[in-house]
Amino acid sequence: MYSSSIHYDEKKKKYIAAYDIDSQVDLGGMQNHKNSRIYFAGSSAWIEDAAWIDNDRFILAGIHSDEQSQRIPYIIIGSIKGKSLQAYHCTGKACIQTIGYKAANIGKIKIEDD
Protein backbone atom coordinates (compact mmCIF):
# COMPACT_ATOMS: atom_id res chain seq x y z
CA MET A 1 0.00 0.00 0.00
CA TYR A 2 1.21 3.50 -0.70
CA SER A 3 0.78 6.56 1.48
CA SER A 4 -1.55 9.13 -0.03
CA SER A 5 -2.14 7.76 -3.53
CA ILE A 6 -0.90 6.37 -6.80
CA HIS A 7 -1.64 7.91 -10.17
CA TYR A 8 -1.14 6.92 -13.79
CA ASP A 9 1.30 9.13 -15.68
CA GLU A 10 0.07 9.31 -19.29
CA LYS A 11 3.40 10.61 -20.63
CA LYS A 12 5.53 7.99 -18.86
CA LYS A 13 2.88 5.25 -19.28
CA LYS A 14 3.31 3.96 -15.73
CA TYR A 15 1.88 4.18 -12.21
CA ILE A 16 3.60 6.61 -9.82
CA ALA A 17 3.37 6.57 -5.99
CA ALA A 18 2.73 9.87 -4.21
CA TYR A 19 3.65 10.10 -0.52
CA ASP A 20 2.00 12.01 2.32
CA ILE A 21 1.66 11.71 6.11
CA ASP A 22 -1.99 10.70 5.66
CA SER A 23 -3.07 7.62 3.73
CA GLN A 24 -6.00 6.63 1.58
CA VAL A 25 -7.27 3.65 -0.36
CA ASP A 26 -8.46 4.25 -3.90
CA LEU A 27 -10.47 1.95 -6.14
CA GLY A 28 -8.79 2.22 -9.52
CA GLY A 29 -9.77 1.17 -13.02
CA MET A 30 -6.80 -0.37 -14.81
CA GLN A 31 -8.41 0.19 -18.24
CA ASN A 32 -9.48 3.83 -17.88
CA HIS A 33 -6.83 4.86 -15.30
CA LYS A 34 -9.49 6.52 -13.12
CA ASN A 35 -9.72 6.08 -9.36
CA SER A 36 -12.08 6.92 -6.52
CA ARG A 37 -11.24 7.26 -2.83
CA ILE A 38 -12.91 4.60 -0.71
CA TYR A 39 -11.05 5.11 2.59
CA PHE A 40 -8.97 7.86 4.21
CA ALA A 41 -6.89 7.77 7.40
CA GLY A 42 -4.84 10.38 9.21
CA SER A 43 -1.26 9.94 10.36
CA SER A 44 -2.08 7.55 13.24
CA ALA A 45 -3.63 4.83 11.03
CA TRP A 46 -2.80 3.16 7.75
CA ILE A 47 -3.83 0.21 5.59
CA GLU A 48 -1.31 -2.61 5.18
CA ASP A 49 -3.17 -4.87 2.73
CA ALA A 50 -6.34 -5.15 0.67
CA ALA A 51 -8.08 -8.11 -0.99
CA TRP A 52 -11.31 -8.78 -2.84
CA ILE A 53 -13.82 -11.13 -1.19
CA ASP A 54 -16.04 -11.21 -4.30
CA ASN A 55 -17.02 -8.83 -7.13
CA ASP A 56 -18.65 -6.44 -4.65
CA ARG A 57 -16.92 -6.79 -1.28
CA PHE A 58 -13.34 -6.22 -0.19
CA ILE A 59 -11.34 -6.42 3.03
CA LEU A 60 -8.75 -3.90 4.23
CA ALA A 61 -6.21 -4.86 6.91
CA GLY A 62 -4.99 -1.84 8.82
CA ILE A 63 -2.94 -0.67 11.78
CA HIS A 64 -3.78 2.10 14.25
CA SER A 65 -1.12 3.65 16.46
CA ASP A 66 -2.50 4.35 19.95
CA GLU A 67 -1.45 6.99 22.50
CA GLN A 68 1.54 4.86 23.57
CA SER A 69 2.59 4.36 19.91
CA GLN A 70 1.56 0.71 20.06
CA ARG A 71 0.42 -0.76 16.75
CA ILE A 72 -3.12 -2.16 16.98
CA PRO A 73 -4.55 -4.06 13.96
CA TYR A 74 -8.06 -3.60 12.57
CA ILE A 75 -9.97 -4.78 9.52
CA ILE A 76 -12.58 -3.08 7.36
CA ILE A 77 -15.11 -4.91 5.21
CA GLY A 78 -16.37 -2.74 2.36
CA SER A 79 -19.12 -3.04 -0.21
CA ILE A 80 -18.96 -1.20 -3.53
CA LYS A 81 -22.66 -1.73 -4.33
CA GLY A 82 -23.76 -0.88 -0.79
CA LYS A 83 -21.29 2.03 -0.57
CA SER A 84 -20.50 0.95 2.98
CA LEU A 85 -17.55 0.24 5.28
CA GLN A 86 -17.74 -1.83 8.48
CA ALA A 87 -14.71 -1.62 10.79
CA TYR A 88 -13.68 -4.31 13.29
CA HIS A 89 -11.15 -3.28 15.94
CA CYS A 90 -9.05 -5.61 18.04
CA THR A 91 -8.86 -4.86 21.77
CA GLY A 92 -6.62 -6.19 24.53
CA LYS A 93 -2.89 -6.63 25.01
CA ALA A 94 -2.77 -9.72 22.78
CA CYS A 95 -3.71 -7.50 19.82
CA ILE A 96 -0.58 -5.33 19.90
CA GLN A 97 1.49 -5.93 16.77
CA THR A 98 5.09 -6.75 17.67
CA ILE A 99 6.50 -7.70 14.25
CA GLY A 100 6.28 -6.01 10.85
CA TYR A 101 3.93 -6.98 8.04
CA LYS A 102 4.59 -7.10 4.29
CA ALA A 103 1.68 -7.31 1.85
CA ALA A 104 2.08 -10.17 -0.62
CA ASN A 105 -0.22 -8.91 -3.38
CA ILE A 106 0.95 -5.32 -3.93
CA GLY A 107 4.01 -6.47 -5.89
CA LYS A 108 1.80 -7.60 -8.78
CA ILE A 109 1.33 -3.98 -9.95
CA LYS A 110 4.42 -2.17 -11.23
CA ILE A 111 4.48 1.12 -9.30
CA GLU A 112 7.45 3.48 -9.15
CA ASP A 113 8.35 6.25 -6.72
CA ASP A 114 7.89 9.78 -8.01
TrEMBL record:
Protein name per its UniProtKB record: Uncharacterized protein
Record organism: Elizabethkingia anophelis
